[in-house]
Amino acid sequence: MTQRTIIIGDVHGCDKELEKLLKTVSADPKTDNILFIGDLINKGPSSRGAWELYREYQGKSILGNHELSLLELVEGKFHKHGKYFDALQHDFGRYFADFVKDVHNWPLWYEDHDLMLVHAGLVPGLHPDQSDPWHLVTIRTWDGTGEDLKNPENPPWFDFYAGDDLVVFGHWAALGGLQRPRVIGLDTGCVYGGKLSCLILPERKIVSVPAKKPYASIG
Questions:
Q1: Number of domains composing the chain
Q2: CATH code: domain of residue 34
Q3: CA distance 43 to 34
Q4: 218 in a structural domain
Q5: pTM of the model
Q6: Selection from 121, 133, 134 nearest residue 168 by Cα
Q7: Range(s) of the domain holding residue 182
Q8: Contact in structure between 26 and 198 (CB atoms under 8 Å)
């Protein structure tokens, strides 16, 4: 039996939906490679609950912008995501330090044969190891210089992608997901009342479960 790879989109603390999705696809850490696209935390009802499921299923995750900002906040740097910090500490309680230690070990991207995971996207023409970490976790559109990565008047980064690897990304909930021959977007806006989605390889099947309710406003 071919081992499955299960790649899960942005959870954002939607622990009940994550539990339902894992059960829907009969995820089994003994036989499945379970990967997360980043942004496991913040905005939803229980970041700790999502992390506990991630550990229970022996998942591996790359950094999202919410995890990268957390690491900066822990170091005392100012960040706009600071508004989530107190709630995150309260949610994790005595397990907060363990969570931060875990996140310190998460990579910015994941590569395995012909598969690449990156939270937001790729800077055109660059491998992730040549890119600014913040570009990897925030890029949506490309202006040619990397100064404005969210301008809707500019083309999306994936219009420039011409590689052979399958690139799977999250971060851009407003897209509602994306399916192209070599690019798949998995953020289907669960925390905003959409769906939580995963990609199952090698069959390349997308499975989703609906959000119980909107927990945050998209913006």
A1: 1
A2: 3.60.21.10
A3: 23
A4: no
A5: 0.95
A6: 121
A7: 4-210
A8: no
